[in-house]
């Protein structure tokens, strides 16, 4: 898939970017996925849906990044192995290939690195990479698919996460009504929705929520003007760097498909877009928006719902006598 | 979908049945699904995949009847709300429309009645029918779909379970290699597989595992010749009737797709088909099979894997401000 230069290399290439932008808008359309290797994508899709990558045999990538529900689980924080409560809201997998890094704190450089995380996280899938590979290596159809694609006799973590990442690269949502408008269809938006977009820009939301994903391309402090009140102990980037300046810095989430990805913020504390817009304007921009302004911005945000990835439910190859058995209750 | 008379009305109509059977075999091919109402099937599919029918917002019908995995969860007993351990093995939903009744003890007359059970079972989805309907009624797209199909302003449990059942009626698996053979393709099976089928008949397995589903059409005692050893307290039909004669009587499970629906028996205690065949022959038929006989029967059983239902992953309509929120941790 084509990546816009702004995401990959910073601002130096913004001339290129501007050239591709209708009306010089700070938001660019989502491009359709270009699947370069269909066999790899298909394999990655199977893995994405395979709960045997978890200790219980019950939790797959799709459990918390549910592609029936905007690539999220629509829960404040996720349910992990043994019904453990996750520490942070599961971000949508949709358009995640456009993120400058993965996880709320950016601790994974890319989708491939991210994919390895939850499998071995004791609060999520609670497995080990070794056992996950033992499961896959015990299944002839998986071995054959990996052998044919990666030219190796043994399935490796590198290949597994590569295939999952390749599938995830296809999970983009082009052709939203807003993108139709960006591409020149003046009738794609109502007057109210357009006013909402103007307010979105004039209020300052667009300072962080820009680019094709309307976010995902920078880390910002949650609570710039006013502190964000939450019980969630996550400290954001500071958890990695230890730097005081990084406290409560999180990756700006994409606003693409935001109507589908409730509840909002890293703690999932807000269920309604109206509330989320109000909180953001106050805490990040020091602006108290009127209800009708919020309503217009929300009307605009709902035009960002694109075509959801559409594909056949994958059929998984069966386990064999050699497959390590799931351990849901031990 | 066409139902064979044997399942609906007993033996009186067996002349009709015989007329349709190639070679007068005691097993008949699975017929392809005839979707009579595509809109209803599509709605039922959405509901089947919608975890908002559970208290947690995390468990859907597909969680335990996973259509990527033979319509089962491939666990001995299922994981329910709050990670509770289910009491009995989740039967496959594939070809379940051919069952004479639903659940291991047949306590639901049909798929429609079955569908209401897990939603309100505190060990499974742990919701209430009232709240599940509140969720659906709060979502305009669901209201519109139900209104258009069922001509009512309010979504009812009757309509919900009807739509789910209509979707489940489509979950048949025709065109297995064995069905190709039944339909006259002599080369569809190997010599070993055919020998397995002969052994399956001659040993007596076919006494209970017959009809198009190779099972699902009678209740039989688990442990006829020799008692079945298990820690599972389920008593089968006796749990409904209280009759001593019904102790350990369970619905005979289908053998269609049995390669995909491990682990086996009502307690899910056996993972390998070889073991399951050995146990069945000893306990039900008083026969100790040789390893090579078992291998041939297993080879035959693996020819019963049919075409898995193939469809687009459904996209679910989003919740609204009026939607009752999931309660995963309360």
Automatic annotation (TrEMBL), chains A, B:
Q: Which residues form the Cytochrome c domain?
A: 39-147, 191-305
Q: Give one Pfam hit by family name.
A: CCP_MauG
According to its UniProt record, where is this protein located?
Answer: Periplasm
- Position of the signal peptide: 1-19
Q: Which UniProt keywords apply?
A: Heme, Iron, Metal-binding, Oxidoreductase, Periplasm, Signal
**PROSITE patterns linked:** CYTC
Instruction: Say which domain of life the source belongs to.
Output: Bacteria
Per its record, how is this protein called by name? Cytochrome c biogenesis protein CcsA
The lineage, from the top, is: Bacteria, Pseudomonadati, Pseudomonadota, Gammaproteobacteria, Pseudomonadales
